[in-house]
Amino acid sequence: MQPTPRSFSHIGLSVPDLDKAITFYGDVLGFYVIMEPTVIVEDDSDIGQMCSDVFGKGWGRMRIAHLATADRIGFELFEFEGNEAPSDNLNYRQHGTFHFAIQDPNLEDLLAKIVAAGGKQRMPVREYFPNDKPYRMVYVEDPFGIVFELYSHSYELTYSNGAYS
């Protein structure tokens, strides 16, 4: 028996400046705040204990905010004390997450907004299936160097056989 496909709940990002990240992801990508920034400290409270279970001892203090996308996917932002940028922000050979993707049919317009807001375009806009499907993609970075991808069409349409062929 095939397992039932699960839905995606949220993604969590560690950022160096929570307020600037909220502004970027809100103003540029249109994500909206569902829980305002909150300070959490390493203590014996329920949330403090839960964070210690996840991060181990010594994480100290952090700020967290919860945003949501148009399709109700959670976007959790963390600002830890003493955070640091990775030496390689696209270490694709290292196991783990190395990007996420955002969909917008006006990919080029969104790309321009990202760059204008301090983000970076990592490559030219490319067509996935030139002459067959009108699908485009590009890798970008937010102002903090977090890498993500823009798709012009849904993941399912992009990779399914027969869509726009």
UniProtKB/TrEMBL annotation:
Keywords: Lyase, Metal-binding. One of its GO terms (molecular function) is methylmalonyl-CoA epimerase activity. GO terms for biological process: L-methylmalonyl-CoA metabolic process. Pfam families: Glyoxalase. The keyword Lyase applies. PANTHER family: BLR8189 PROTEIN, METHYLMALONYL-COA EPIMERASE. This is Lactoylglutathione lyase family protein. It comes from Yoonia ponticola. The lineage of its organism: Bacteria, Pseudomonadati, Pseudomonadota, Alphaproteobacteria, Rhodobacterales.
